[in-house]
Amino acid sequence: MLRNPTSAGRRPQPHPHPTSPPLTTTAAGAAAQHHRPPAYVTPELPPASHHHHRPKPRPFALRSAAQAMTPLTRRRLLTTLLCLCALAAPARSQNASATPAPASVEGFNCSANGTYPCQAYALYRAGFAGVPLDLAAEGDLFGVSRFMLAHANNLSTSAAPAAGQPLLVPLQCGCPSGSPNAYAPTQYQISSGDTFWIVSVTKLQNLTQYQAVERVNPTVVPTKLEVGDMVTFPIFCQCPTAAQNATALVTYVMQQGDTYASIAAAFAVDAQSLVSLNGPERGTQLFSEILVPLRRKVPQWLPPIVTRNDVSATPPSPPPTATPGPSDVADNRDGVVTGLAVGLGVVGGLWLLQLLLLGCLWRRLKSNGRRGDAVASGDGGRSGKSASGSGGVGGERFLVSDISEWLDKYRVFKVEELQRGTDGFDDAHLIQGSVYKANIGGEVFAVKKMKWDACEELKILQKVNHSNLVKLEGFCINTATGDCFLVYEYVENGSLDLCLLDRARARRLDWRTRLHIALDLAHGLQYIHEHTWPRVVHKDVKSSNVLLDARMRAKIANFGLAKTGHNAVTTHIVGTQGYIAPEYLVDGLVTTKMDVFAYGVVLLELVSGREAAGDGGGGDLLLADAEEKVFRGREDRLEARAAAWMDPVLADQNCPPGSVATVMGVARACLQRDPAKRPSMVDVAYTLSRADEYFADYSGESVSVDGSGEIAAR
């Protein structure tokens, strides 16, 4: 029997104090030591019921303190110590014969014979650390939709999990460039009191560790987390090899009382396969991550679900602690069969009802295409198929099978809502290009009107979730005209290019603001290059696709040309003059390094305040001008050349020369003609964060720094 993180009938145990030594040296104690928080974790921890760790009380060795205690305090202390000893005893007896090996803090290695990326799973228990008992809330924690989570566990999308119910969370496991470890990235927004360690062991239930979080977020300072920051948490995973005979591997965290034998029985695999995958030591380590081969879609031990609309339904009772007698077993077997039959009947009825509703919807769309019903889209759909509307204009249509799994991920908008919100798409609401400002129900959105099937763009947008990417709120399809409308969050200050070219608005962009914009853009590109699988290449990085919010922080927009994968070749060259990488223009090579090249051009725009290509049609004039006036010459004169070349609006401001020179050095590295010599966005973000540090001690005078801005390519 697999146990919940907090066993039934027992008070949840508090976390160890960050600085307390262990009371015992059992295997469980060793495991707790392995999960000890880093030095920067503050002692103020969340409520004890949200944690899974065994307490490690302080030793009471100070005689003066003992003498100062009242008799009542001594009695309470003695009772507490006896309880702690009683709790520690089972772990000691169970694990005394085992010699635990230290668990990895970096995750599982990328298997040499595995194929990456791949489908993987993590076992997550519902109802802990304040996460609501709702498939949507639990899916949001891992960046998956309600439909995906329900499908992976053979549940209805209207079901609510019971407290402590184990769920298989589907993951996209990958091996990022330069990392020896495999993981599935999930984006988490920092809340008050969060640290890397607290989030890892509470909300993510030890499916990752804080050391790995630090490694994949090299530009984030763990001691300076701010509420609202988006941090990548790597969920440990691995892709199976052919020899392992598994459809996927499940990341499972060892709980109190777990053994390889009990886990193997639950997953219907042999215990020896767990030993082969993880080694014998990990099976004795509390809270260590192990891999379990999955050979069926849903493990047989998943308990019944609670239907959200059935008020009479109650969560399943906790498992019995005593071994039942023969008569009890027979009665229980009858009850299980009856319960299983009822459960299957309910689930089957819900699925049948859902299929009937979808069938009716599809027939209605076919017969009444002129009504322009709105459909929301999201995760994993295939390209829609073209069909002609009856008596109307031919348009791109989504099949119901394409959109059924997306309906819960995005908001559904109707054509009539968008028409009212934009006054019939009046030019007064036009922001830029085909993007309109819409006021719908008191909320402001940006609506992008498209004349083609947006399924490919949606397939990319549903994968990404980052504070430096414009958020997709929903979409709508007008089946009568074939129009598709993508509805985004409204970003208040518009595009970067308009801010730079408007002299009045450009004065708001002081040097530090421009540097933060460059960092925001670098973080957004780093995310789609390094933390999505398959990788995403934006292909259209330019200042008009960088939007600024109310705080003048940058967000990347317009994924209309984006492609997944790496090192692809195309004969259809599209892009904007002045930003196109040479290898893409000549050979059609699509890699992340083409985004790096375009990013270098945006850096030149931020420094100079000028367009990438002038109205005269002279091509990449800005790059050519920078090469002639800034990049050529002695390195020790780079600061002076950069200061003379930068935006005149910045001339009246105190700009640290070292900071400007560093940015120009990064731009030069990004604009190398050979893509192999360009840096990754990880390196770019790190170097620019150093440029921001020049403000700390800058007083307005010339500073003595290395202005070369050298940055290594990888």
From TrEMBL:
Chain positions covered by the region annotation Disordered: 1-58, 307-331, 371-391
SMART domains in the record: LysM, S_TKc
Compositional bias annotation for Gly residues: 378-391
Superkingdom, natural source: Eukaryota
Protein name per the record: Protein kinase domain-containing protein
InterPro entries, per the entry: Kinase-like_dom_sf, LysM, LysM_dom_sf, NFP_LysM2, Plant_RLK_LysM, Prot_kinase_dom, Ser/Thr_kinase_AS
Topology of this chain in the membrane: Single-pass membrane protein
Protein kinase domain boundaries: 369-695
Protein's cellular compartments: Cell membrane
Molecular function GO terms recorded: ATP binding; protein kinase activity
Keywords of this entry: ATP-binding, Cell membrane, Disulfide bond, Membrane, Nucleotide-binding, Signal, Transmembrane, Transmembrane helix
Pfam families found in the cross-reference section: LysM (PF01476), LysM2_NFP (PF23457), Pkinase (PF00069)
GO cellular component: plasma membrane
Compositional bias ranges of the Low complexity kind: 22-32
Origin species: Triticum aestivum (Wheat)
Subcellular location, principal: membrane
